[in-house]
């Protein structure tokens, strides 16, 4: 029988609705990040760097781009005869067909997959955070303390603590209480959604709580283990960890990569971030172009000026165009004479000549001010924007737009222009 000491289950089915049009056609873990990566590359790279060679990736929402990216796992050295990476979508069972309804429900529906490796420990991960962590060190901590459930946690400002699951520990890091999104938090140690379970403990908890609707780790499984008196410990993490669940946090995390001394370093030799790379030619930088503090992906052609921006692979920036404080994703073409300021531009977008993004006074977004804010302009993937138009701050554009969609050549700040089919 196959025997693996620890396997990882990576939850990657989330919609990421707070990323607006960026996730209208793809799961959040598939969203581009840092010029050449996708968000899921970070937990996958952490796995292989930590010596974990068996990873189940649980997908659900709009999985095409994610599945294509992962493939058979070659890019992360996870194409193994035994183990490796396996994509686990929901599937039809003899009685009924069931979607994953909660984080733990997704794990419950794949109990046979885990059983097949007869693991001692199961590592539960989320597919939508940017960080580097050695899970082997966390496993050593788990074993040393005789823990049955170890929760990775990190200190957060106390006024933000109510957004998280909060752990309360004694001086030996043993968890004495756990509160899911408490109104008045008793500690500032937030659960990172990274757990190590003894397999027997996890299996028992899943089966005992199987009838709960939308079975969830924070709401059901952790409280169950706590009530049963399982030894539970908190593994404190003090490195860089970013939840890029909102447009502004996603934009900030990208911008932090281009700081003079980046807090999160993509260039460390001993902890590489792996991704599926296409065979692209080198970047081309024209004679009179200007580039300051940017990441520029392979195969990009820069004829204009780029300042303080993260530019993906295969991007074209036309002559006389100025891009500032922006994220331009793969295969996007920007015409000549454009001005792009504080924008997030999705993949394979076409922007005509002399078009301006983000150059007008700020106004609140008319449809979703909770998503489109902080002065950002957001453009969904495969969008077409004609030449000679002006698009304001907190505006969102998605779909194949034409001159008629911009009365007087203007889409004012805060407007939403999403064409049918998007």
Structure description:
There is one protein chain. This protein is α/β, with parallel strands linked by helices and 422 residues long. The chain has a seven-stranded mixed sheet, sandwiched between helices. The protein has a seven-stranded parallel sheet with strand order 15-18-21-24-27-30-32, with no helix packed on it. A seven-stranded parallel sheet has the order 16-19-22-25-28-31-33. β2 and β3 (37-38) form a beta hairpin. The longest helix is centred in the middle third of the chain and has 11 residues, at 217-227. The chain is elongated, with a radius of gyration of 23 Å. The model has no long low-confidence stretch (mean pLDDT 91).
Any key phrases for this structure?
422 residues; alpha/beta; 7-stranded mixed β-sheet; 7-stranded parallel β-sheet; 8 helices; 16% helix
Q: What structural class do the secondary elements suggest?
A: alpha/beta
End-to-end gap: 48 Å
Per the principal axes of the C-alpha atoms, what is the gross shape?
elongated
Low-confidence stretches: none
Q: Biggest sheet, strands in spatial order?
A: 5-4-1-6-11-8-12
* Proportion of helical residues: 10-25%
Number of strands: 33
Number of helices: 8
Short description:
Helices cover 16% and strands 27% of the residues. The protein is α/β, with parallel strands linked by helices.
Blueprint (SSEs and pairs):
Elements: E1 6-11, E2 32-33, E3 37-38, H1 41-49, E4 54-58, H2 64-70, E5 84-88, H3 103-108, H4 111-115, E6 121-126, E7 129-131, H5 135-144, E8 149-155, E9 165-169, E10 175-180, E11 189-198, H6 199-208, H7 217-227, E12 232-236, E13 241-243, H8 247-256, E14 284-285, E15 290-292, E16 295-296, E17 301-302, E18 305-307, E19 310-311, E20 316-317, E21 322-324, E22 327-328, E23 333-334, E24 339-341, E25 343-345, E26 350-351, E27 356-357, E28 377-379, E29 384-385, E30 390-391, E31 396-398, E32 410-411, E33 416-418
């Amino acid at each position: 029988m196959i025997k693996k000491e620890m396997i990882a289950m990576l939850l990657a089915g989330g919609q990421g609705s707070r990323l607006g049009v960026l996730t209208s056609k793809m799961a959040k873990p598939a969203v581009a990040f840092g010029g050449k990566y996708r968000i899921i590359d970070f937990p996958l790279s952490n796995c292989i760097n930590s010596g974990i060679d068996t990873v189940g990736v649980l997908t659900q929402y709009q999985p095409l781009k994610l599945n294509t990216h992962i493939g058979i796992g070659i890019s992360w050295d996870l194409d193994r005869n035994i183990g490796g990476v396996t994509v686990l979508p929901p599937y039809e069972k003899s009685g009924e067909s069931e979607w994953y309804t909660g984080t733990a429900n997704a794990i419950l529906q794949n109990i046979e997959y885990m059983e097949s490796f007869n693991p001692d420990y199961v590592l539960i991960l989320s597919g939508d955070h940017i960080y580097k962590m050695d899970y082997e060190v966390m496993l050593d901590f788990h074993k040393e303390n005789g823990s049955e459930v170890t929760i990775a946690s990190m200190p957060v400002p106390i006024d933000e603590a109510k957004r998280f699951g909060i752990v309360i520990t004694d001086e030996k890091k043993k968890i004495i209480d756990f509160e899911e999104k408490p109104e008045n938090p008793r500690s500032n140690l937030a659960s990172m959604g990274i757990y190590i379970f003894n397999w027997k403990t996890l299996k028992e908890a899943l089966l005992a709580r199987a009838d709960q609707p939308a079975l969830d780790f924070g709401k059901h499984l952790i409280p169950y283990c706590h009530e049963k008196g399982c030894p539970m410990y908190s593994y404190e993490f003090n490195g860089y960890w970013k939840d890029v669940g909102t447009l502004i946090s996603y934009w900030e995390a990208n911008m932090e990569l281009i700081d003079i001394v980046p807090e999160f370093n993509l260039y460390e030799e001993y902890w590489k971030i792996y991704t599926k790379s296409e065979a692209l030619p080198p970047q081309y930088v024209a004679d009179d172009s200007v580039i300051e503090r940017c990441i520029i992906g392979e195969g990009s052609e820069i004829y204009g000026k780029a300042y303080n921006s993260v530019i993906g692979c295969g991007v074209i920036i036309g002559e006389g165009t100025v891009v500032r404080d922006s994220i331009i994703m793969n295969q996007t073409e920007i015409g000549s004479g454009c001005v792009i300021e504080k924008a997030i531009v999705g993949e394979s977008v076409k922007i005509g000549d002399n078009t301006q993004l983000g150059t007008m006074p700020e106004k609140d977004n008319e449809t979703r001010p909770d998503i489109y804010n902080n002065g950002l302009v957001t453009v969904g993937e495969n969008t077409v924007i004609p030449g000679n138009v002006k698009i304001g701050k907190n505006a969102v554009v998605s779909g194949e737009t034409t001159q008629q969609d911009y009365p007087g050549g203007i889409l004012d700040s805060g407007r939403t222009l999403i064409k049918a089919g998007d």
